[in-house]
């Protein structure tokens, strides 16, 4: 256990050294590449205004998303009504998609518990 802790510490030190050496240049390059997205002047008031615009824009998009939800549901109803015409390939793809969703849910639970399988810290 102590050797693993020492390894973890050495890796953390290496990462910290790398960030301290290259972090500033990475930041400058990133800001230079994305300067078209920066609002001038970058003030707290402007950030608050943009935050409110984003919030209310998302609120305004709810009716459009609501309509698209019902269109998707109508499509599913149509598929269900014509389920005799569904191909085996389509069923297989849907089953794989459902399995993938379930797997992501399981992985999310494991990550949420701190990468433990039992839920208890050892």
UniProtKB/TrEMBL annotation:
Pfam families: ATP-synt_G. The keyword Manganese does not apply. Its main location: mitochondrion. One of its GO terms (biological process) is proton motive force-driven ATP synthesis. InterPro entries: ATP_synth_F0_gsu_mt. One of its GO terms (molecular function) is proton transmembrane transporter activity. GO terms for cellular component: mitochondrial membrane; proton-transporting ATP synthase complex. It is found in: Mitochondrion membrane. Keywords: ATP synthesis, CF(0), Hydrogen ion transport, Ion transport, Membrane, Mitochondrion, Transport. Belongs to the ATPase g subunit family. PANTHER family: ATP SYNTHASE SUBUNIT. This is (wild Malaysian banana) hypothetical protein. It comes from Musa acuminata subsp. malaccensis.
